[in-house]
Automatic annotation (TrEMBL):
<dbReference type="InterPro" id="IPR036005">
    <property type="entry name" value="Creatinase/aminopeptidase-like"/>
</dbReference>
<feature type="domain" description="Creatinase N-terminal">
    <location>
        <begin position="17"/>
        <end position="155"/>
    </location>
</feature>
<dbReference type="GO" id="GO:0004177">
    <property type="term" value="F:aminopeptidase activity"/>
</dbReference>
<dbReference type="InterPro" id="IPR000994">
    <property type="entry name" value="Pept_M24"/>
</dbReference>
<keyword id="KW-0378">Hydrolase</keyword>
<feature type="domain" description="Peptidase M24">
    <location>
        <begin position="162"/>
        <end position="372"/>
    </location>
</feature>
<dbReference type="InterPro" id="IPR000587">
    <property type="entry name" value="Creatinase_N"/>
</dbReference>
<protein>
    <submittedName>
        <fullName>Xaa-Pro aminopeptidase</fullName>
    </submittedName>
</protein>
<dbReference type="InterPro" id="IPR029149">
    <property type="entry name" value="Creatin/AminoP/Spt16_N"/>
</dbReference>
<keyword id="KW-0031">Aminopeptidase</keyword>
<keyword id="KW-0645">Protease</keyword>
<dbReference type="Pfam" id="PF00557">
    <property type="entry name" value="Peptidase_M24"/>
</dbReference>
<dbReference type="Pfam" id="PF01321">
    <property type="entry name" value="Creatinase_N"/>
</dbReference>
<dbReference type="InterPro" id="IPR050659">
    <property type="entry name" value="Peptidase_M24B"/>
</dbReference>
């Protein structure tokens, strides 16, 4: 490993991550792993690019230096951003999988047990099939090692937590700007512009997903965002966004009312705040994630305004590239999951309400850290609905 001033964390942090990965490899009787998930590559090495739709991977043997493979254009990211000493590349007319197998052979692994991330978005089936064919020809064994890196990512280190505290300030800056920009007669685009400008001015980098900003009846459309609509008197605006620094995210939902707070909105606000408080009181190491979901879901679903909690009650959050800012594929707060909370886990809690009076969606959410004795929010911004 080589030190690099561009690394997000001290070199010792990456050495620790690599050592832990190799311990898990030994437990699974793997001689090497091929890591291709963008978030996992970033976690292990600091490598990042927006060009991750092209094949890229890190081959990690049990002993010796890992070797990376990227598209030729992206090789500079490996050199300038990471600790990796050997970075191989392929041209736009080259054969990425053949080059990958060449690395396997050069490391003497073609007859060994090699793990790969079968679930990786950017290692498509036709490439996996070719890799299998190469390994079978070499009488090697290719095995799915899904989750082998994520086991290390789920609990954040002290350095990661400190970085996420900085990210939270970026998120709050964007949300505060969006709230202040909301008034009768502005467009959703103007609110979005204010939020993005504030996040980037506060030191934020491009997030995995840009803010979700919808007004009035458009708030009922799942994962919709600004489309030029003009905000009308008596409506509400639903806001959800995540700030980002060094690919780490914290996320937040808030709701702005343009007019008086109706009885339905008062009731909805009370339910969401109650659910957040209850979740905060429940969350601690040893609690099952399904119990957190039940806690939030029971409070939201007994509402008297016709709303539902359509989704899981939360998800792990941290490193992310598009198309999503969450780590929910690692762990989600959902029904039937008996996974247990541990110190260092970070979650976006989602006591949001879809379908208030049949035509409104509102949200008040939080990003929290599981501590040794409970949990703590990353945010200080008021949770209550804002009135304009």
């Amino acid at each position: 490993m080589r030190d690099n001033p561009a690394l997000c964390f001290p070199l010792a942090e990456y050495q620790h991550r690599l050592n832990q990965l190799r311990e898990r490899m030994q437990e699974r009787l793997l001689d090497a792993v091929v890591i291709s998930d963008p978030e996992n590559l970033f976690y292990l090495t600091g490598y990042q690019t927006t060009g991750y739709s092209y094949f890229q991977a890190l081959v990690v043997p049990l002993e010796g230096e890992p070797i990376s493979i990227t598209r030729e254009l992206e090789a500079s990211n490996m050199v300038h951003r990471t600790w990796v000493e050997e970075a191989r590349c392929y041209t736009d007319t080259g054969d990425a999988i053949q080059e990958l197998f060449n690395i396997i052979k050069d490391l003497g692994l073609e007859h060994k047990y090699v793990g790969y991330e079968r679930n990786s978005y950017f290692f498509p089936a036709y490439q996996q099939d070719r890799f299998h064919n190469h390994m079978q020809a070499g009488e090697g064994n290719l095995l799915d090692c899904y989750g082998i890196v994520e086991e290390g990512r789920i609990c954040k280190s002290a350095a990661e937590i400190e970085l996420m505290r900085s990210v939270a300030k970026v998120t709050e800056a964007g949300m505060q700007a969006a709230i202040e920009a909301t008034e009768v007669g502005v467009t959703e685009n103007e609110i979005a512009a204010a939020a993005c400008a504030a996040m980037f001015s506060a030191g934020g980098e491009y997030p995995a997903v840009l803010p979700y900003i919808t007004s009035g009846p458009r708030s009922m459309i799942g994962h919709a965002t600004w489309e030029g609509r003009t905000v009308q008197a008596g409506e509400h605006v639903f806001l959800e966004m995540a700030g980002c620094i060094k690919r780490y995210h914290t996320a937040m939902m808030r709701t702005v009312l343009l007019g008086e707070k109706s009885p339905a909105m008062q009731s909805a606000e009370a339910s969401m705040l109650e659910a957040l408080d209850a979740a905060h009181n429940l969350i601690r190491p040893g609690v099952m994630v399904s119990d957190v979901d039940k806690c939030v879901r029971d409070i939201i679903c007994r509402n008297d305004v016709g709303a539902n909690l359509l989704t899981r009650a939360g998800y792990s959050i941290g490193i992310a590239f598009a198309p999503s800012w969450d780590e929910g594929y690692i762990m989600s707060l959902k029904q039937g999951d008996e996974s247990v909370l541990k110190p260092g886990m970070t979650f976006h809690l989602l006591p949001w309400m879809w379908g208030i009076e049949g035509d409104k969606t509102c949200g008040i959410s939080d990003t929290i850290l599981v501590t040794e004795t409970g949990c703590k929010s990353f945010f200080t911004l008021p949770r209550e609905m804002s009135l304009v």
